[in-house]
Amino acid sequence: MKKTLLVFILNISILSFINAQWQYVSNIPTTNNLYSVYFPTSDTGFTVGSAGTILKTVDSGNTWISQISNTSQNLQKVLFVNSLTGWAVGDSGTILKTSNGGNLWSLQNFNTFNYQSICFINIDTGYISGSYGTIIKTTDGGNNWVIKTSNTNYAPYYTYFKNNDTGFVGGIYDTILVTTNGGNNWTLKSFEPYNGNILSFNFINANIGFGTGINTVVKTTNGGETWTSLQDVLANYMPSLYFTGMNIGYIVGGNWSPDAMPIFMGSVILKTIDGGITWDSLVNIASSKMLNSIFFTNSNTGFIVGSNGTILKTSNGGETTIQENTKIQNINIYPNPANNNVFIEIPSNFLISKLILTISDINGRQIIEQQISFEKTEVNITNLPKGVYVVKVFNNNNVLVKKLVKQ
């Protein structure tokens, strides 16, 4: 559905029942933040996060099991070169390797830099990037690492190689470093207008690729020789993107207030169907969570991980089925408009699992969040400024939304 959730909400005249196609995966064995997700096969996947967290699934993401990582450092990125051999990197020089599909992870620390990204061309040759412009390379499967001069002190956040010779590193201040000789030399690429930091790359083929980050979505059509900023984006923090085809791609991230001490204003899931020309918001039942990484195993099946152990899954490309409610599905808000207290009533058959109620302003900033367990809930909105708000009630499978006016 090519509409933003906000536009949809503000234009409906009656309640719509939304069947959200990004759904929570239940019974996740951690509440730690998750920063990266990767599937070496359609059924087997891994996610890593804070305090050495590694989770594994063998049933296409329906259940996840904790793995012993042998570290308490934050793990920022996970990558597999085949179903058995994989890597995870993180803070304080942490490099982990598994050769048996994640059953055992061995620690291979190299210096004390914080590593942000890892890329392997094959089972032997790989690169890691991190703080202070660090780029290191191995040609023997991680037994030995050598430092490569990056020609910058800026922190490289993401490393991507499209073949043995040509690779890219993205970092702060719109840094894109390019090598055409296997990392021996790096050239700084720039583009206008300046926007922010490059946090992720995804190449569709040898020529067409995208980068995202802070206030930035960029595209190349000539293999990285030049990059163009795309203007139509709906978030200011976009740490991960994934394209499932020439025209269809996804970005996850969120919005932060531009204050000196930024406030998190909610996460977003963005989708393009025209090769990145335009991006539209998908319904996001995890809008209160920071979403950090996205990965698809095919054109329909995708996964998103984020803060507090959040894992989302879609089986239909994240699209949303919407139908007008004319019968039992109903949400009643009264009084509306309201001044002080407002009552929110939901249908009894909707109380089949834990429900979350949120109230957000028209800019998407979430102001109120609470768990509800009864058909009728009273909410105090005395401190809210006058204006239009969005009330959302959701569980793992469905979302109810309605407009609220504060007088």
Task: List the main descriptive attributes of the protein structure presented here.
407 residues; Immunoglobulin-like; six-stranded antiparallel beta sheet; 1 helix; 2% helix
CATH architecture of the largest domain: 7 Propeller
Q: State the share of residues found in helices, binned by percent.
A: under 10%
Mean pLDDT: 83
Low-confidence stretches: 1-19, 321-329
> According to CATH, what is the class of the largest domain?
Mainly Beta
Number of domains: 2
Structural class: mainly beta
Shape descriptor: globular
Strand content: over 45%
Biggest pleated sheet = 6 strands, antiparallel
Enumerate how many helices there are, as a single number. 1
Q: In what order do the strands lie side by side in the largest sheet?
A: 30-1-37-36-33-34
Count the strands? 37
The end-to-end distance, rounded to whole angstroms, is: 32 Å
The CATH topology of the largest domain: Methylamine Dehydrogenase, Chain H
Describe this structure in words.
With 407 residues, the protein is mainly β. The chain has two domains: 5-320, YVTN repeat-like/Quinoprotein amine dehydrogenase (Methylamine Dehydrogenase, Chain H), CATH 2.130.10.10; 323-406, Immunoglobulin-like (Sandwich). Helix content is 2%, strand content 45%. It contains one helix and 37 strands. The chain has one helix at residues 5-11, and strands spanning 16-19, 23-24, 34-38, 45-49, 54-57, 65-66, 75-80, 86-90, 95-98, 106-107, 115-120, 126-130, 134-138, 146-148, 156-161, 167-171, 175-179, 187-189, 198-203, 209-213, 217-220, 228-229, 237-243, 249-256, 264-272, 280-281, 291-296, 302-306, 310-314, 321-324, 332-334, 341-345, 355-361, 366-372, 376-380, 387-394, 398-406. The protein has a six-stranded antiparallel beta sheet, with helices on one face. The protein has a four-stranded antiparallel beta sheet with strand order 2-29-28-27, with no helix packed on it. Strands 3-4-5-6 form a four-stranded antiparallel beta sheet, with no helix packed on it. The two termini are 32 Å apart. Mean pLDDT is 83; it is low at 1-19 and 321-329.
